[in-house]
Amino acid sequence: MQYHYDGFHPGDPSVKPQAKAADFDRSAVDVLIIGCGPAGLTLAAQLAQFSDISTRIVERKSGPLEMGQADGIACRSMEMFEAFGFADRVKKEAYWVNETCFWRPAQDGGIARADRIKDVEDDLSEMPHTILSQARVHDFFLEEMAKAPSRLTPDYDLELDGLHIENGGTHPVMAQLRGLNGAADEVVRAKYVVGCDGARSAVRKAMGLRLEGQSARQLWGVMDVLAITDFPDIRLKCAIQSADAGSMLIIPREGGTMVRLYIELDALKDDERAADRNVTSDMLIQRAGAILSPYRFEVKEVVWCSAYEIGQRVSARFDNLGGVLISGDDPHVFIAGDACHTHSPKAGQGMNVSMADTFNLGWKLAAVLRGQAPSALLKSYSEERQAKAQELIDFDRDMAKLFSSKDRKSSDEATFQAYFQKHGRYTAGVETRYDPSLVIARGCDQSLAAGLPVGARFHSGPVIRLADAKPMQLGHVVRADGRWRVILFAPEGDTGVADGAVADACEALSTGPITKVTTGGADRDAVIDLRAVFQQGHRQLDLGMMPAALRPSKGRLGLTDYEKIFCADHSGAGDVFDMRGIDRQRGAMVLVRPDQFVTGVYSLSNHAGLSAFLDQVLLPAPSLP
Ligand SMILES: Cc1cc2nc3c(=O)[nH]c(=O)nc-3n(C[C@H](O)[C@H](O)[C@H](O)COP(=O)(O)OP(=O)(O)OC[C@H]3O[C@@H](n4cnc5c(N)ncnc54)[C@H](O)[C@@H]3O)c2cc1C
């Protein structure tokens, strides 16, 4: 965490100095977000970091979510929480899913443990798979928004009632908001509207789009309970299949005592809704007891209970370039999260994929609104996220089929095993790989960093920071601040001195693309943040010999940024060069976009290739008068 660059400020450093523009015109904003679920709050927390963007987020409920809904937090979402600054709080409060058990019908009646496996592959992520109430995740986002420069807070009791586009003008989208519980109606004009308004999205309907896919909808009974039991694996994630009472998933919850039970019920027919079944907690308790029999299961308190129906469906587009609400060449209305895709809770994807959608969209909106990128960048949101949502749903469906296939031959076992591992990577959220586009480079030299695939999220590794010998994760330098990162991995023997490959790359990049996109007077790393990692141990290198571009002066006082240079960790944590397949002879230059995805891998001398790519996606900074 870095602070004091603009002079000393006492107090909590996570509370950023407040931007002067907090009193913007609330009826004409840059971005209007509909819905305070995980998708809306991720976007709001991202946009709140930029004091020059005016954002409103409205919600029909009267206040924040208090309990229930999703609870599984994938490793990839934890990596994103780290970028927002609250992963440690989640780690501290949450249940960690380290192992999973499978229980099946026993020969002599009842159930027996059939298998117990590691939940997350080794080195899949530096972050654990955790379980924490969705309501707490919302709380953390709300706190980050309130501490951000724009001090963003939601407007509750406001419901979207209509959406129109008037082509031309600076704020083409007009939203009618109905005040609930005594709140006044409002009309808000916006440059961009993002519908994070859940599976029955009014924004999606206004765009004339619908969720398409599987029509049979699975009904799940879900309960958070405090119970007394002699079932031995009650503090482990368990998939339980009984002989005649049905199947159940046990998810232990935070706090050491609570458990969530997911009980699969019969699929809904035709127009039938979950409410028509009158599922009660007593029914679910009885069913859970029968599945767990002969173990004792005595529920002392039902904390939350719901009948939750969901099919695997996806919208054909995630923006208004399809449908009826057309606004010209580039999109102005978007949908994210459950508004454009729904998943079976078995794979634990709903909340995670929803947050990933708006982490993808947030930096793009910010870059366009701040004049750093062309508005065509916004098309890449639907292109990237729709394809991934479809892929995830297809994969989940195939996996479910394979899982329940009764006549699987033993020769299929290897395929099944490989599929099962891939499924683990999907549910961990690290399997996403975007195709080449305006924001993912083509023709890269992937062999220089085989373990950092172009299009996949930047896979972190351990390093030691040179200036203060701090062991840390390299990926944690990628904050949710809208900046691009260029990470230079030094070739063997390079110590950073003049005429070395790293020094040459620093010179070329800082006089080239970095100067081109940085407004005069702004910090040198305001748009592109340059970092380097060396192969030697941290005691073998001299900070004073490092290129000036890696020790820039910043802020009002022109203080030195000492935190851009790292070394491989030789203490046993693992060498990042080996772990991520970096070519030790040639090194590598890795471009990472603001949502932590690897955009390109280049040789250290290929400044021209990197600059040409950046020219497509970043606009030159306006010259000062
Ligand atoms: C009742 C319920 C139970 C669930 N249970 C589980 C579970 O057990 N396990 C699991 O994995 N997932 C569960 N989910 C799914 C999971 O919560 C979602 O996948 C996730 O919350 C999606 O996030 P989102 O931000 O896209 O949408 P949501 O979390 O649905 O958020 C949408 C928000 O928009 C608001 N809104 C809707 N329309 C308007 C409007 N017109 N104007 C203003 N505001 C509006 C809503 O009030 C809501 O706060 C459940 C969802 C629901 C609704």
Can you tell me about this structure?
- This protein has 625 residues and is an alpha+beta fold.
- 24% of the residues lie in helices and 24% in strands.
- The longest helix has 26 residues, at 379-404.
- The site of flavin-adenine dinucleotide (FAD) has 31 residues, from helix 1, strand 8, strand 16 and helix 7.
For this entry, give a set of tags.
single chain; 625 residues; alpha+beta; FAD/NAD(P)-binding domain; D-Amino Acid Oxidase, Chain A, domain 2; Glutaredoxin; seven-stranded mixed sheet; 13 helices; 28 strands; 24% helix; 24% strand; globular; binds flavin-adenine dinucleotide
The coarse silhouette is globular
Fraction of helical residues: 10-25%
Q: pLDDT below 50 for ≥5 consecutive residues: which ranges?
A: none
According to CATH, the homologous superfamily of the largest domain is: FAD/NAD(P)-binding domain
First and last CA, distance: 34 Å
Small molecules (ligands, ions, cofactors) in the structure: flavin-adenine dinucleotide
Radius of gyration: 25 Å
- Averaged pLDDT: 91
* DSSP, total strands: 28
Q: What topology, given as strand order, has the largest sheet?
A: 6-5-13-14-15-12-16
CATH architecture heading of the largest domain = 3-Layer(bba) Sandwich
Which fold name fills CATH's third level, the topology of the largest domain?
Answer: FAD/NAD(P)-binding domain
Please give the domain count: 3
Described by strand count, sense and barrel closure, the largest sheet is: 7 strands, mixed
